[in-house]
Amino acid sequence: MLVLDVEASGVDAQKHSVISVGAIDFSNPSRQLYEECCIWDGAHIDEGATAVHGMSDAEITDPAKQTESELVHKFIAFTEGMSDTTFAGQNVSFDRDMLKAAAARAGHTAWPFAHRTIDTHTLCWAHMVKRGLIPPVDAEKRHSALNLDAVLNYCGIPEEPKPHNALTGAKSHAEVISRLLNDKKLLSEFDQFDIPWLS
């Protein structure tokens, strides 16, 4: 399993650019990747995205940084040799689509990853239901309210620091996956936090 988090200049894979990626090899969590890049020429910048990742326009358009193309090549190289590269994370279809569009812009003709993903939202929702709990619903939007912070809290971990960073995001995803699937802690950063349903 390849635990993944992508930060981008917006949410549309065709209009926006990857700005950073964090990845963890779940079977060997000491293998981690963090890369940042300059957005591709002409990519849109969404102010809402800036509030999430906390990088300034100057930082994400810095020509001294590697290109999005170089970043996606490094990401794909990181996955070589892994026995299972199924993407996992919170709303990870977004991350998959952003990287797939970046790979296409970089000239990859064969995308080496599967369409299927493992979503921490779904894992948490199912875990709650199996324990006889009712997953929270956003009353106004009438859909699940299990965002990353809610999943972290359910698993006994404080909310992720703001602004969001792709590697801290990937670490958060990996830790909750381990707790939800295996009832085990995974990363030393979270060792001080007990697993609530085992207490």
Question: How would you explain this protein's 3D organization?
Answer:
The protein has 2 domains: 2-117, 2-Layer Sandwich (Nucleotidyltransferase, domain 5), CATH 3.30.420.10; 119-198, no CATH class. It contains 7 helices and 7 strands; from the N terminus they run E-E-E-H-H-H-E-H-E-H-E-E-H-H. The chain has helices at residues 47-53, 57-60, 68-79, 92-105, 120-130, 148-154, 166-182; strands spanning 2-8, 18-25, 32-36, 87-89, 117-119, 137-138, 143-144. The strands form 2 sheets. A 5-stranded mixed β-sheet has the order 3-2-1-4-5, with helices on both faces. The chain has a two-stranded antiparallel ribbon with strand order 6-7. The protein is globular and about 50 Å long.
Summarize it.
This protein has 199 residues and is α/β, with parallel strands linked by helices. Helices cover 36% and strands 15% of the residues. It has two domains: 2-117, Ribonuclease H-like superfamily/Ribonuclease H (Nucleotidyltransferase, domain 5, 2-Layer Sandwich); 119-198, no CATH class.
Structure characteristics:
single chain, alpha/beta, Nucleotidyltransferase, domain 5, 2 domains, 5-stranded mixed β-sheet, two-stranded antiparallel ribbon, 7 helices
Structural class: alpha/beta
Helical content class: 25-40%
Instruction: Give the mean pLDDT.
Output: 94
Largest sheet: 5 strands, mixed
Rounded to an integer, what's the Rg over CA atoms? 17 Å
Report the count of strand segments: 7
Order of helices and strands: EEEHHHEHEHEEHH
What ranges have pLDDT less than 50 throughout 5 or more consecutive residues?
none
- CATH superfamily membership of the largest domain: Ribonuclease H-like superfamily/Ribonuclease H
Strand content: 15-25%
Distance between the termini: 28 Å
The CATH class assignment of the largest domain is Alpha Beta
Known CATH architecture of the largest domain: 2-Layer Sandwich
